[in-house]
Amino acid sequence: MTCYSLDGLTPVVHPTAYVHPSAVLIGDVIIGPGCYVGPLASLRGDFGRIILEEGANIQDTCVMHGFPESDTVVERNGHIGHGAVLHGCRIGEDALVGMNAVVMDGARIGARSFVSATAFVKAGFSCEAQSLVMGAPAQVKRSLSDEEVSWKQAGTREYQLLAQRCLQAMVVCEPLAEVEADRPRIADRGLRPKGSSSQ
């Protein structure tokens, strides 16, 4: 990762978190246990504080930033899809923000809620737990079923396992010039890190 201290504040990354080498962390950034930060993510703690709580993931090209004195927080087991922008907001425990969604300042997404892909969540928005939030500007469309929440939780567990896999097995390499005969699928390689269960 590219990591910068700013004004005496150095990013904090728990040893069990995985941060891709192309991600950028600046200043007041705190990444908790078991988190995953994907390629080209930008977590800029140059004005406010950026926090990923335990088991959260923020995927490729996501941005976390905020105004001075703000906290931008993804709570425990939060799941942030590719290209999303979070600015001075709070994403509740076990909630999901879809790909290319934008969540603005002071917004609070309830626990176990989904923000749909490409939604625009205005500043100051809030929703109850287990809400489906869609549109631009975003509105609560309905409550989520327990089955929908379980589907999201399974996806989040895969990213928690991915953090372990990357810590254990990702290495810089040169590409091959040709495809090998009988090239295996990545699923054939066994996706479970050493010591993990299949649950």
TrEMBL record:
EC identifiers of the protein: 3.1.2.-
Domain of life here?
Bacteria
Report the top EC class in one word.
hydrolase
Q: Write out the GO MF terms.
A: hydrolase activity
Q: Which UniProt keywords apply?
A: Hydrolase
InterPro entries from the xrefs? Hexapep (IPR001451), PaaY (IPR011974), Transf_Hexapept/Carb_Anhydrase (IPR050484), Trimer_LpxA-like_sf (IPR011004)
Protein name (database record): Phenylacetic acid degradation protein PaaY
> Organism classification, top ranks?
Bacteria, Pseudomonadati, Pseudomonadota, Gammaproteobacteria, Pseudomonadales
Q: State which gene encodes it.
A: paaY
